[in-house]
Give the backbone structure.
Amino acid sequence: MMEGKSAKEELKRVDHLIFVTLKYTRTVDIIRNVIERLISAMDYQVIELLEYYQEKGKVEQMPKVSLVRFRKVEELIPKDKIIKDIVDFYHNLRQILNSNYKKKEEFRKNVALVTPKEEVDIDKLKEYADITKKYIYYLEEQIK
């Protein structure tokens, strides 16, 4: 696994950003930072899972591109609907992060990042964090 980085560490940072930083600094930059960390946490967990499969001889080479790594997990566990949901969720987070966006009500209670596809406010961000945690623990269970 990447030195000193783990999915759980990223999740701790996410919690701090949501429950402390966003409370005092209601900006779209913080929302984007949380989304980046959610993506990063999922990346770390998928790398850990693929390394496990590599040790078992089921994966020859670690894919360099993150989305390819997620697709590889989908190949390794093909009949698992939750894995498919994880890949779709991850893809959605990446789309939000990479979309053109507008800032809505920055420095106010209803701050939101608005993309052509959706609006991410603090409640939606908390929901995404909860989903990410659930998925990370699920991926972790695949290793045991």
Observations:
- The longest strand covers residues 102-104.
